What does this fold into?
Amino acid sequence: MTQTVVFAPLVGWPVIWVLAGVAVALVILAVWRGLAGWWLRGLGLAALVLALSNPALQEEQRANLSDIVILVVDESASQGLGDRAAQTAAAVAAVEAEVAALPNTELRIRRVGDGADDAGTLALTALAEALAEEPRARVAGAILITDGRVHDLGLVPNLPAPLQVLLTGRAADWDRRLVVRDAPAFAIIGEEFNLTLRIEDIGAVPAGVGGEVDLTISVDAEAPATYRVPMNTDLDLPVTLPHGGANVLQFSVAPVAGELTDRNNAAAIQINGVRDRLRVLLVSGEPHAGERVWRNLLKSDAAVDLVHFTILRPPEKQDGVPVDELSLIAFPTRELFVEKIDEFDLIIFDRYRMRGILPMSYIENVVNYVRNGGTVLVAAGPEYGAVDSLYRSPLAEILPVAPTARVVEEGFRPALTELGRRHPVTEGLEDEAPEGGWGRWFRAIEVQLLDGQVLMTGPRDLPLLVLNRVGQGRVAVLASDHAWLWGRGYEGGGPQLELLRRLAHWMLKEPDLEEETLTATVRGEAMTITRRSLKEVPPGPVKVIGPDGAQALVDLPEVSPGKYEAVWQAPELGLYRLEQDDLTRVIAVGPAAPREFVETIASGAELAPLAEASRGGVTRLEDGTPDIRQVAEGRPAVGRGWIGVTPREAYLTTDVNVAPFLPAWAWLLIAAGLAVAAWLVEGRRGAKAA
It folds into this structure.
């Protein structure tokens, strides 16, 4: 119980202070005039002022509250290195015992792991949250058990008591790490660019370690290559992306005995390969309604460099105009079909027939161009079955269909085959059809299938769109010259632009349009695994090999014809390898070396200013767990072998009783009595003087 004097004034304090001033002035006047009862008058006036102030005695019943010590335990991935986990467990047990021995003190424990999305260790965030849950008047101190690698240093909690950092790790720890710098998100296919990486040893590196190491580099699932490189030096590596889409580049060095971890000995980056320009050679033959559509379609794409080779005046044309008077410039056929043919990404033959303008040797160059990785699309018309057809040239060696010389001229709607519904080039095109289906075409060339895949059929189930692989290249044949009707929107039209785009990307070997592919995308720690297959038998489960070597089998249900997909939650960040049949895919969930493993050497340098600002400090657990003492507020709270907390002496008031010293009438009676006494004293002295 505590007692204090409180006031409940009957009037405002300014009025009371004015009256007190008047009373003092009257007492001074009485002293100056020599009145014998001046002191009695002063006491009377003081009684009146106190009566207006209404003093009272307040009694409080208080319940003392315990002090609170907050313990934040770092359980992030870096705390599992070396013997830090054992150090942490021993320190937690020691702190629990020490706090239990302190009088009237409680311990609150908050554990913090790895932050979401590779945010690292958010220990100060956890401390701020713990402080927000407790009354500040009761917090006697905070203790943080960590390796010092905290990634939310920008958040500085407002600490009402000392912060103590108990540092795990050893002074003799050292580690080797590989760091990739200046990695672009995109790069142009076939063009060289530089990556900067560095292999370095950090911490207390033993003598004799360093010099040169073997650096292993691989792209996607290709066979790795090994190079001898120097340590502790920035290395500029020239890189050329082999294909479009995602390219995963992996770098690694062998682990070394004695280092803390090998999780940061590897790094993986994903760079999207894009084409600078798509170079297309459009070779047109007989003019027709669809020729302009092909040209406009290709010219509308700013990423396409189009070279259009067309025959405006065939040699057999007899119009009487002298050749030397024609204003046409000779087309550089030799330059295009001999010297620079390999520079084109796609060659389109649109209703072209052999008229002797292109020598057979040029067509043989086109055949070799395809076998060496080039791509050719043939948009066939009635001339495909004629005597001067492309099929009567060396190009027949790579064409997947042979003409029968028959032309079917009747209305029909192109249809996808069962294979076409599964093939990535035509999959889902039916979903884009207008109401009532695609618009009709009115001419198809009758062809016989020699090799390849039939994705679309025309009238009488004749092959309409056929794809084939030849050597390292690819060939496609569209057995109709009426695809332009889709582009014009006839009867609702059809997906001419999307079909051509997919055809071009398939020919350019874009991974997303391959028939047999195993791909994966990552969002957060959720991995979406997709398998495309044209096989009738569903593929088996995918083997997923994690960064720690652990394996898991993931079943892929069929989500659409030829497409199998599942979402799998990755247990940890790092580099994963997917294997199914003869397909392999490498994917990184977060960085290959998570943020927890970028800096692995324990250090309290970054937390020391925060601890020292609150009179605390950083203490290494390697030197032993310190004792915990109670120190007065404002005093240093850390010393050799001990750390301190500040008792707060907080309490909770359970009952309050307020009683006035005297009732108002008693104050008035006292003031009146003192005034009468003063009058009597002064009257008696006046009588004696007379």
About this structure: The two ends are 59 Å apart (CA to CA). The longest helix spans residues 664-689. The mean pLDDT is 86.
